[in-house]
Design brief:
two-stranded antiparallel ribbon
Length: 84
Amino acid sequence: MIKSTIKHEYLRRVIEEVESQGDDPSIESLENLVNEIKHSNLIFASDIVSDGMNFPSVKIKDKDFGLLFTDMDEFHKVFPNNEF
């Protein structure tokens, strides 16, 4: 699949549904989110180097989180010049 054709409109709707429920989302909404992620092609930002790949991350409360994107529009919001 070509990265530029990846679109996840349903995944976005499911994420918005979970977010709209605040700190206590329903089990059904969480199950919908997990199932959609299982069947999605997501974009993971990385930089290819001679000995492998470097993955940018965000550190929150001493934990590192990788960056996943639902489509290239979302990717370009963070990396407008395709540096990863």
